[in-house]
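Weekly sync notes, structure subgroup
Attendees: PM, AL, DS (notes)

Item 1: joint prediction request from the bench team. They want all two components modeled as one assembly rather than separately. Inputs as received:
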Amino acid sequence: MIQALPLVESGAADAAGLGPEHLALACASHNGAAIHVDRVRAWLSDRGLRDEDLRCGGHIPRDEDQAKCIICGSGQPDQVHNNCSGKHAGFLTLSQYLGAGPDYLDLDHPVQKAVRAVFEDVTGETSPGYGIDGCSAPNFACTLEGMARAMAWFANVGESTTRGRAALRLRQAMVTHPDLVAGEGRACTELMRAMEGRVALKTGAEAFFIAILPEQGLGVALKIVDGQTRGAESAIASILVELGVLDPDHPTAQAFRNAPIRNCRGIAAAQVRPGSAFS
Amino acid sequence: MIQALPLVESGAADAAGLGPEHLALACASHNGAAIHVDRVRAWLSDRGLRDEDLRCGGHIPRDEDQAKCIICGSGQPDQVHNNCSGKHAGFLTLSQYLGAGPDYLDLDHPVQKAVRAVFEDVTGETSPGYGIDGCSAPNFACTLEGMARAMAWFANVGESTTRGRAALRLRQAMVTHPDLVAGEGRACTELMRAMEGRVALKTGAEAFFIAILPEQGLGVALKIVDGQTRGAESAIASILVELGVLDPDHPTAQAFRNAPIRNCRGIAAAQVRPGSAFS
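Output from the run, pasted for the record:
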């Protein structure tokens, strides 16, 4: 949602008539289900843009129905199937608004310059560098504390600044459309539903999670050092329970905190569960 | 290959007329390509057995052609598609020879009792317990040193004992048929080919590798504590280079030691490489 702030605060989102569904997709790592792909296709089409204008590359989507269609059909996914295609539609929309060129992922493109400036502002740090994401977007580096600080800022924003109003809209879009932010069965979607809109939750590559808790005025940033996603879902669910925003008796909370690992015959051969650091 | 020792040393393999290809499959975690599936089907059929007699369960195989056939066809893999189906064909063959019942994975079944006895003998330890594998086989616990001891035993066996002769046959089957032990593109297969039959290599679940080095009389056991396979391939390749059995300039060695992580547009966004412990 940091990457989506320039889209909203610049006026580009309103000029393009984007609504909460677009904004949720602009923050999404989606499953590439029909609900995602159809909306991103329509978004691009409404802007006079095409799949070829994206720079994220394609991959077989997580959604089984869409994956099957592709595998048994052309064998080649479109770029809209990329889990980051909504974020990239957001970048493209901003680029159009700024009258900038097509390579919106270049570090010196106006879009990425705007993203870096916002990133450094909300984390409160000068970014020492960047990595390249699976979707080829630059990921600016920061400390874990800096990211948590940014999420706390999202939790506490008011309507008195342009940037604050933009953050509020993005946060609200995520909790209103949890299915668009990720998809069925995904931790972000299922846990946001279980918390009934009180918390915005987002995963990132290499075992990363953030959470925005407006009622508590708290931000959370979680990173599993080895990058293995498997422990991160149990950890974030446990943290949300400890912070009092996720009911430990909710089936979704139980499913993610103490997740069975089932083998080929459905036997629970192992379990992911919170370690001793959690009560 | 420890699990396959009873099959051979009991005389069951010879009574069933099994050759080196069968023995390689009895040690395999294969890709489920046609070369694997056709052979396991034929093996079962030759023994008057059917897919339903297996107890491993099915899964979509790693081989893309076979996976596509299933996904675009019935949608349901057979149990022979399970990467462990060769091991299970071995268990079934032994069970037939012993005149035992159909549930060959039960802990008190003669097959698993034989496996446990051999396991404790070659590791030199009394096993404190077991886990359940993805394929539902019991995996007896041991220390990492115990496993390395077992692999050193495999490296040094001679023909003077029944068990030693069985181990020799299994080891030779693996290095003669590296493609059957895993498959195209897999670390075990590609690295065994690069080492031209001098080393037997086998991966296990949760970031585990063993290597048997007969010319050096050495056994190797490797485990990445967090279970993340991603670092294990670079680590085992680095160890094999350090032990002088893998040419560091061989393209396969380079590909596994310093493995690029490519994103959706084929850009090398990151790299897996050996840490400072390796020269």
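Discussion: The mean pLDDT of chain B is 97.
Action: AL to compare against the crosslinking data before next sync.
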